[in-house]
Amino acid sequence: MTTNLLKHSADNLSKLNYSVLIEEKEGGFQVTVWGLPEFQVFAKTREDALKNLHELVNSRLQNVEIVTQEIEAPKSEHPWMKFAGKYKDDPQFDDMLADIEAYRR
Q1: pTM recorded for the entire structure
Q2: Pair 38, 100: CB distance under 8 Å
């Protein structure tokens, strides 16, 4: 397996879109970035919860670098290729093909 670091300009990575799960709980709202449970806040109003989450995400990403990597899966041989040409030197192979053809008619 190989990986390649993809070069992107800062403009391409300057904005992130993330899905947010908003749950109404007793006494307020719990807001979580979908798939990132460490990005979670609780506030009395929906707007405050979203604002607090935005601030949390911004503060966490303040001193980090975001890179994109391309991962290439290893190329595997087709499972039937090991049988290709197995009977090329068999003197009965042509007779067998003829029998198969006759059977199919």
Answers
A1: 0.53
A2: no
